Amino acid sequence: MLPVELLLQIFEQLHDDRPTLLNLLLVSHHFSQLSESILYADVTLKPARLSSYSGSRRTILACFAESLSGPPSSESLRPHRTRRRSAVKRLFIDGSDIPCIPHTEYAQLDLILTKLPHLQSFHFTHLGSAVRWSPFASSRITVAPPFQLTRLIFNGAMHPSHASKMVHGFLASQTKLEHLEIGSVIEEALGSTDSDSDGAVAAVHPTLVASSSLRILETSALDFFLDAGKTPNLTHLKLSSSTALRLDTLTLIDSPPPGPLSNLRVLSTSRTPHLSSTASAGSPSAMATTPLPNLEYWELRSEWVDLGAFLQDPCVRRFLVSLPRLRGIRFSADVAVHSREGVAQTFESVLGLEFIEVRVRRKGGLFERYYRGEEKPRLVQRRCEEEIEWCQTWEHDASAS
Fold first, then answer.
1. Taking the model in full, what pTM does it have?
2. What's the pLDDT tens digit per position in 155-212?
3. Residue 333: how many CB atoms within 10 A of its CB?
4. Are 208 and 174 in contact (CB under 8 A)?
5. Taking a C-beta distance cutoff of 8 angstroms, is the pair 94, 45 a contact?
6. Strand, helix or coil at 290?
7. Three-class secondary structure of residue 395 per DSSP
8. Would you report the helix, strand and coil content of the chain in percent, each value rounded to 5?
9. Which of the 8 DSSP states describes residue 67?
10. Are 250 and 291 a contacting pair, CB within 8 Å?
11. Each residue of 72-129: pLDDT tens digit?
12. Cβ contacts of residue 252 below 8 Å, gap of 6+?
């Protein structure tokens, strides 16, 4: 028989072929172990969704929680459950299509999280009413599992008291976080005290919140992360639509030049960053230093512009020439291209700039990329999901024709 390492590599090629992996479960005990390690690596669950078993009224979360723990009498299933717990690396809770998550589901979710010691990524999405839950906030759970998340995405509104508990409890315990995306309500709890449902005040400990190993961050509370000194290794930053980025505020932090975002390579904003009034005086190159000395890519979202006129705007030009290593600009919203005059002048002003990319109207996922020295743009197809374009490797995440 082939070594386990080679078999695992072969089985991993079947990651998206679930029917084949399910059939391999029945081949042998050895194949069953290898198949389970792949089948359970990525788990997506929907709260309040009833299971598909005939006559069952249990929810999907309840069924999955039982598959990880189960009644004490199920001794023969214990090895399988142990393997399932260890196999789960990425958990996605999808509540995007339900208005409210029942409280009983929160208890099931807490139980599931306590059973996943090797969890690396936790993605929670709920677009309905405010969530009155935070991981491990209930009194019956005293010890969090030993996992150390490297990726946490929490999309959805949360009741302020529960947000505070999550920030200063669950989030504070994840010291290895590299990728963090959190909702605005949770961000409010980062910098303020609040009262929980029992009237107790939740203490704020900013030094305990957020890992200093953060590399990818989506937030509207950038000031908190700057003040807490959690940005030295940050390479990708996405600011929400409610955040106005002023470059001059980044230079106010008590740190030596080039500042707290010196390693930032990718910046995604919903509006144009602008310089302070003092820095904007004189020529665009009058800045002595820049708070973003290593920025290579800038993405602009949700701003309808005429490309030529936009790129010739003095404020935009000041921003662009202040980025000595800028290589690419992407316009993710619809952009009107009436002339290439502004594109040509931008290439002349920003010497290291390699391309300017705009979304093609009425063709979702397609972009036109203007390269330096080329008369016509190339059509570019994204190789990743639309919502995560900003945090991908821009050199390799697209195919140009």
1. 0.80
2. 887 877 788 778 777 877 788 889 998 876 676 666 554 444 444 434 444 444 556 7
3. 13
4. no
5. yes
6. coil
7. coil
8. 30, 20, 50
9. H
10. yes
11. 555 555 667 777 888 899 999 998 888 888 888 888 888 888 888 899 999 998 888 8
12. none
